[in-house]
């Protein structure tokens, strides 16, 4: 498909019709039906030109009603697919590039975004404002004090939330791949619950400000506000350079494993069930598998197959396929 003269930064399928794909290129999102394409015709079904800066990620919600596009200016456009127009623009949250965006399946009017300002933000996109801001760059949010941990800033490179059919096993969590090599596993409901009892405070302009998170609890144990947080870092076999991507396993028992890739040329397969219940096991048993590559990892995904179920794209021109069991 000759989609554009500019690089393609992201693509996603329409959740309800996987013949339809959304492709971001430059500041534009194009929609195609792959069954309607021919070798001499690449005409898109729709084209959305709403972002002011280059788009980094595009994603579709589970009901195929909204599309989110996150850009270099730190803005996120929420596009109404059925009405073919901008529903909301999410701004004044990120102060730098917004690198990743995900809809939250169990909260139909919320998205979570991460950026190169080290911020993780939950938004109520029906109102167009942030409901929770976590700054991973604060000194007490970092694991960098631990010996051997990468000292790069805690930029958010990738965010994943589980599919609806994984929630019974995993709970309502969010996983974050960070620039300092740490993978954060966050219980989102306890994070959000920690701000509910507190009344919103008014800023100088009279606008209700989003609550900001402080100290994470170590080892997945709830802190005084009920928050739960777990770091997969160097001290338990984690990445020694920036973590670039993260995905849940679709093979076998869906969501059992968490797969991360990084600039340390490593792919790590974590046992998610042990991460979420660390009291039952030692930290050394969290890492299920380590895969060595020759180059940095750009992206990875899993498939539902019993074999050839992990696909890895690194900085070479060759796509690698592995079997994880």
From TrEMBL:
Alphabetic keyword roster: WD repeat
Pfam families with a match to the protein in the record: WD40 (PF00400)
Stretches forming WD repeats: 236-271
PROSITE patterns: WD_REPEATS_2, WD_REPEATS_REGION
Keyword Kinase included in the entry's annotation: no
Zinc keyword on record: no
Highest taxon of the lineage: Eukaryota
Protein name (Swiss-Prot/TrEMBL): Transducin/WD40 repeat-like superfamily protein isoform 3
Organism expressing this protein natively: Theobroma cacao (Cacao)
């Amino acid at each position: 498909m000759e989609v554009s003269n500019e690089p393609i930064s992201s693509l996603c399928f329409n959740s309800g019709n996987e013949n339809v794909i959304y492709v971001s290129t430059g500041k534009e999102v194009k929609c195609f039906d792959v069954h309607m394409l021919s070798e001499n015709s690449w005409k898109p079904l729709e084209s959305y030109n709403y972002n002011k800066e280059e788009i980094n990620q595009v994603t579709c919600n589970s009901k195929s009603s909204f599309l989110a596009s996150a850009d270099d200016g730190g803005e996120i456009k929420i596009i109404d697919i059925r009405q073919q127009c901008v529903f909301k623009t999410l701004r004044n949250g990120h102060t730098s590039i917004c690198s990743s965006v995900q809809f939250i399946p169990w909260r139909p009017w919320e998205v979570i975004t991460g950026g190169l300002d080290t911020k993780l933000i939950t938004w109520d996109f029906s109102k167009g404002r942030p409901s929770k801001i976590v700054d991973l760059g604060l000194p007490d949010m970092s694991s960098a004090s631990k010996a051997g941990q990468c000292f790069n800033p805690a930029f958010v490179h990738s965010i994943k939330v589980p599919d609806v059919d994984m929630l019974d096993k995993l709970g309502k969590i969010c996983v974050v791949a960070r620039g300092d090599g740490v993978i954060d596993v966050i219980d989102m409901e306890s994070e959000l619950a920690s701000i509910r009892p507190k009344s919103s405070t008014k800023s100088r302009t009279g606008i209700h400000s989003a609550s900001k998170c402080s100290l994470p609890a170590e080892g997945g144990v709830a802190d005084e506000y009920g928050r739960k947080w777990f770091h997969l870092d160097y001290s338990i076999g984690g990445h020694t350079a920036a973590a670039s991507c993260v995905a849940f396993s679709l093979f076998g028992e869906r969501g059992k494993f968490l797969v991360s890739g990084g600039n340390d040329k490593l792919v790590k397969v974590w046992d998610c069930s042990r991460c979420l219940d660390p009291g039952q096991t030692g930290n050394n048993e969290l890492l299920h598998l380590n895969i060595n590559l020759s180059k940095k990892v750009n992206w990875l995904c899993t498939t539902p197959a019993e074999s050839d179920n992990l696909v890895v794209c690194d900085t070479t021109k060759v796509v690698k396929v592995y079997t994880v069991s």
